[in-house]
Amino acid sequence: MDATLQEGAVLGGDYRVVRPLAQGGMGAVYVVEQLSTGKQRAMKVMLPGLVRDAERRARFLAEAKISTRIESDNVVEVLGAGVDEATGTPWMVMELLEGDILPTVLTRYPTVPAEGVLEITGQLCDALGRAHRVGIIHSDIKPDNVYIAVSRRRGVPFTVKVLDFGIARLVSDEKRAARVTTPMGSPLWMAPEQTTRGSEITTATDVWPLGLLVFRMLSGKAYWRTANLPDDQVNLAALVMEILVHELPSASQRARELGAGALPPGFDAWFSRCVVRDPAQRYPDANRAFSELEVALKGHTAPPPDPRPSMPQYVPPYTATQMGALPHTGVAPTNAAAYVNTAPGPGFGTMTTGQGGPGLSAGARVMAAPFGNSLMPGTIVEVNQLAGLARVRFDSGAEAWMGTANIRR
User: Fold this and answer.
1) Residue 162 CB-half CA count within 13 A
2) Which residues pair with 149 in a beta bridge?
3) For the segment 154-204, what is each residue's pLDDT rounded down to a tens digit?
C-alpha cells in the first residue's frame, strides 16, 4: 500500500504511527501507539487527495459518530476522532483487532459448515439488528467488511466485527427510509435500490447482501455467475444485468449450476426472502432474517423453554489461544481432547490428533462433558474437523454437537 504517514509521526497529539496496516478507497489505516496509555490502536486517516472534498470529508467524520451510536460488541469500538491541527488530516482511532477479514478466512476454508455459518451470521446480525433499531442502515455489507477477530472471552470461538460505516445512512423514527442521492456501494453486494437515484434505502437494504453472504459461505461460490469468472473476465455490464434484469434462480438451482454441493433443505425459502428485488418482500431487518435462518439451517423451530437443565446443541470450537497453555503447534497433553485447534488466529482451525491418543472418528466410544457438565458415555456419530465439532449420541438417547475440546476417549 502507499503509506501516507511516516513511522514516528504523531497525530492528534497522542498517537504515534507504528506501521501501515491497510488502505481503502477513502482512507488508510495504521497501527499507532497511544502515548498516554502505551496501548496500540488502529487509526484511520483520510487520504490526502480527498481531504478537500467537502462531501467525503463530512462522511469520514460522520462515520465515528454513527458507529458509537450502536451498542454492540460486534461493531468496532471507536475511541476518538478529530482533525490533526498541524496537517489538517481527519482521523479516527479504533480498537486494534487481531484476526482476518472474512475473504481471507474463506480462502483457507472455501465452504463453512452450517454451525459456523450460524455463529458468524448470528454475530453479524446482532450488530446490524442493533444498528437498525437506532435508525442506522450500513449500506455496504460485504465480506471485506466482516472481520473475524480472535475472541477475548472464554468459551467464544471468535468475535465478528462489522467494519466501515462510511456510507451508512441515518433515518429517524418518523421517516424509516433514506433517499439515494448518489449510488454508492460495492456492485457485487449492493441491493438493486442502491443503484437508482431517488430510490428508498431501508433496513431491508442490508438484508439483500446478507443473503448473498450466507450463500457464499455455504456453497463456496458467489451467487452471480459473472462473479465466479477470473478477475480479468468479469464484465460489469453482465453483472448489472444479473442483478437488475435476469431471473433470480433458487439458491439450490444456482449452486447446481456452479458445481457446488447441496444446500440445506430449508435454505431456498430463506434465501428467496433476502435476495428479492422488491424490498417490501424481503425480511424487514437483520434480526428477523437471522431468526428465520436459524430455523432453515437447523431444520426445525426452536423448542419451547424447558425448566429442566438442557443439553446444549452447539459448543463452539476453541482456538489455540483460548486453550490456555496449549501452544499453537497443536501438541496436546495426553489427558487433553483428541483434537486441538492449531490455528493461531480466528477461524475454524485445522484439527490434529493430540499426543497419546487416536483421533476422533465416527463410531468411537467417548466420554463427553457439554459445557463442563459431568462426563457422560456416548458414541461419536459424526465428526466435522473444519468446525471443530463432533456429534455425540449419548447412552441416554440424547444427541448434541460439541466442541471436540470437550470430548475424551
Assistant:
1) 32
2) 99, 159
3) 777 899 999 887 666 655 343 444 444 444 457 889 999 988 777 788 999
Taking the CB of residue 202, how many other CB atoms lie within 10 A of it? Answer: 22
243 vs 408, residue with greater confidence:
243
Residue 353's beta-bridge partner residues? Answer: 339
Reported as type and span, the H/E element at residue 33 is strand 27-34
**CA end-to-end span of the chain, whole Å?**
49
Residue 150 near residue 98 (C-beta atoms within 8 A):
yes
CA distance 308 to 310: 6
Cα Rg of the chain (Å, integer): 23
Maximal CA-CA distance, the chain: 70
What's the mean pLDDT when you consider all of the chain?
77
Distance CA(19)–CA(214), nearest Å, equals 34
Residue owning grid cell 428467496: 272
Alpha carbon distances (Å) from 69 to 60, 72, 240: 16, 9, 34
What is d(CA 180, CA 199) in angstroms, rounded to the nearest whole number?
A: 5
Helical segments of 37-152, H only: 54-68, 102-108, 114-133
Instruction: Mark out the alpha helices in 156-300 (DSSP H runs).
Output: 207-219, 236-244, 251-257, 267-272, 286-298
DSSP-derived 3-state class of residue 131: helix
Task: Please give the average per-residue pLDDT across 352-364, as a whole number.
Answer: 52
Q: How many CB atoms lie within 10 A of CB 352?
A: 16
- Element housing 401 (H / E): strand 399-403
Query: How far is it, in rounded angstroms, from Cα 284 to Cα 203?
Result: 6
Report phi then psi at 157, rounded to 5. Answer: -65, -40
Q: What is the DSSP letter of 367?
A: E
Question: What are the distances in angstroms from CA 316 to CA 220, 319, 389?
Answer: 21, 10, 7
**What is the SS3 assignment for 78?**
strand
User: Comparing C-alpha atoms, which of 191, 189, 409, 371 is closest to residue 281?
Assistant: 191
Q: Which of 372, 381, 374, 375 is nearest to 401 (CA)?
A: 381
Instruction: Report the alpha-carbon distance of residue 89 to residue 110 in Å, rounded.
Output: 39
Catalytic site residues?
A: 140
